[in-house]
Amino acid sequence: MRLPLLALLTRGPAHGYELKQDLEKLLGAAYPQPNVGQIYVTLGRLEKSGLIAGEDVEQSGRPNKRTYRLTEAGREAVLAWFDETSDEPRVRDEFFMKIALAPESGLADPIDVINRQRRHYLRTMRDLSKLAASEDRDNKVSQLLIEGAMLHLQADLDWLERCQEELE
Questions:
Q1: Side by side, which strands form the sheet with 62-70?
Q2: C-alpha span between 65 and 8 (Å, rounded)
Q3: Largest CA distance in the chain
Q4: Could you give the CA distance from residue 96 to residue 111 in angstroms, rounded to a whole number?
Q5: DSSP assignment of the chain, as one string?
């Protein structure tokens, strides 16, 4: 959550609830909705680390609102984040551990574990298809997020097929 919040603050100062709304609008319903409490905790940590600076803004008849702006160190952190590749190899996959250990434990059949996972992926793909149909077509970011998730699921389904072939 740290770096996405910093990236949003590159546009200018904002308060936590605005950042939450901006994330929701940008990413759509396919992305898990951020918790406003988590956002404020993260903003506090970013401020302590010097990546953002907070300022209380007075409001008449309401409590003060704290807005945050990006510092130069925060800007550099966002630039470094965009320069980094996202490398998340799936060699520590929990599901793979299940099918590897199922026969060793004698408590589960790996083919049953694969079939259960396959049904789960297919349900998730159906849910994503419905979400894509209901999501605003003009929100290209949300549509791409859904499409990416579905492509990953399809690759996972193909891999499950391969696992089943090898283990039967």
A1: 14-15, 62-70, 52-59
A2: 18
A3: 70
A4: 12
A5: -HHHHHHHHTT--EEHHHHHHHHHHHH-TTSPPPPHHHHHHHHHHHHHTTSEEEEEEEETTEEEEEEEEE-HHHHHHHHHHHHS------TT-HHHHHHHHHHHHTS--HHHHHHHHHHHHHHHHHHHHHHHHHS-TT-HHHHHHHHHHHHHHHHHHHHHHHHHHHH-
Calpha distance 89→91 (Å, rounded)? 6
pLDDT for 97 equals 81
Residue 114: exposed, middle, or buried by beta-carbon count in 10 A (0-12, 13-18, 19+)?
buried
pLDDT per position as a tens digit, 3-59: 999 999 999 999 999 999 988 888 887 788 888 999 999 999 999 999 999 999 988
Report the b/e string of 144-164 with b at 16+ CB within 10 A: ebbeebbeebeebeeebeebe
pLDDT in tens, 47-71: 999 999 999 998 888 888 999 999 9
- Residue 168 pLDDT greater than 90, yes or no: no
* φ, ψ at 162 (rounded to 5°): -65, -45
pTM: 0.71
